[in-house]
Each structure stands twice: as structure tokens, then as C-alpha cells.
Design brief:
Elements (H helix, E strand, L loop, with lengths): L5 H11 L11 H4 L24 E5 L22 H13 L14 H4 L4 E5 L3 E6 L4 E5 L17 E7 L2 E7 L20 E10 L2 E9 L8 E9 L50 H4 L1
Antiparallel strand pairs: 1-2, 1-9, 2-3, 3-4, 5-6, 6-7, 7-8, 8-9
Length: about 290
Amino acid sequence: MKRYSCSQLTAALAGLALASLPAHGQDIDRLSAPDVRSVKPKPAPRTAEGHPDFSGYWKGTRDTKPVGNIAKDLPDLKLPLTPAGEAALQHNLTATIDPESLCIIGGIPRHDASGLPFEVLQGANKVAFLYWYSYYRLIPIDARRKHSEDPEPSFFGEELGHWEGDALVIDSTGFKDEKVWIDENANPHSDALHVVERWTRPDADHIHVEAVIEDPKFYTKPFRYTRTWIAGKPDEEVHEYSCSENNVDSSHLGFGPGPIRKDGTRGYDNLAPLPPPLPKTPSQEK
């Protein structure tokens, strides 16, 4: 098993996330899924309560481009920034290092735009999203619950879930506004961020999100982000990932997400050399 630094991983993911996660010796074929499946899709499984069951291991498709850009569905990939939002973007580009490379939680909606796979565990009253950085979000499903008047700021926000037909709706407010990027291209958000996600599972092989992102301090109007993932194999799952261990690149990273390379990917080159891979254990040799 190889060990890599968080910053080295994040810098690679910022450019071509689906093909670049080296943790646990995985390659693109295990990280991403084919764009098209030839077999007829099976119906989505359902819980005892009759709702679609989102449980499973989910991979982004290779045609989700540009990966990590929350503006991918907008004309010219341009977000509707206010003057304050533009100033915050320029600050991120010129004075901040990618927070995830420093082991700071990406939060929502950044994790929705990530190239990393994730896992969902769904119960009757809560649903958990498990991410490759060993982060998780735990959302209560209860239509009667309301947002707090003054929620404690957090990276994933105060998240409340409820069902609208076959759609799981997650309404989130109360976000931290410091040390965060809204996506892997340094776009900002303020403490006024409000995200509403609608998760659906059209068949057994796919889940889909449509998110409405609103932040009147930094964006002139709400905008949408949509994404579809494909089911992984039954034995695939997230693994422990120690973000700060062997984080040999943090002192070598520059401000912003890094320059665009000749191949169109984004990130920093000439980083510190990787530590040698650990020897395989007898069980891994089999």
C-alpha cells in the first residue's frame, strides 16, 4: 500500500480528479466508472419505508467535465459574482492555499463537485455520506425539523433532510466562511451560503444530485449544479485516509489552485518527492 500526502493528492485532483487519486494503489478504472453501460438498468432498490435506497459506493463518470468546477453547468463556466465575491475570489487565488491540501474539510457543495468516490449509508431517520478524506456528513431525515435561528457555523452546515416523493432533499445553512473554497477552482462562499440538494436514484446503477446554491453576498443570483454518479462494485468501499500524515507538499504549494498545464489539467508540479511505498504484508501478497 502506498502512502501519499494530502496536498499531493489534492493538487492532482484539482486538474483531473477522476484519473489521479493514488491512495491505496487504485487506478482510474477503479476510481471512475464507464460513461455508458450496455445492460438495461435495474430498478432502484427501496427501503422498508418505500423510499429509494441510496446506500452504496458511488463513482463519478469520466464525462463529468470540468471536474471540480461548481460552474460547469453555467455559460462560459462563469459564476455570477458580486463585486464582493470577485474580491473574495481574487483573495483566494493570490493569498490562500487550497484548504483541502492543508487537511481542512471541503464541505458542501465542494464535495458534490469532487472527483473522489464516496459511500452512502442510509437508515430510516438518518443518512450518512462517507468521503475519501475520512470526512463524513450525517443528515437527519425529518420534515418537522427546522433550521436553528443561529446555527453553529460548520463546514457542511446545518443539514436537514426530508422526502419529496422519491427525492431526498437536503437543506443546508450555517456554513463557515473562512478557510474554505466552494470548489476546486478557488471560488468563494460567504456565511450567507444556502444549499438545497435534491438526490434521486433513477435506477440501481445511478444516483443524481441537483443542487441550488444561493449566496447573496458573493453571487448576484442562485445557480444550479447537477451531477450523476455510477454504482461501484459491491465490495468497493472507502478506506481510512490520514490527511496530515506524510503531508510533505504543504510547504511547496502556491496560492490558488495552481496553473493550467499544457494537457489542460490544473495543479502544481515539481513537488516534494514521494516517500517510498510500504512493503506489502503477507495478506496483501495473496
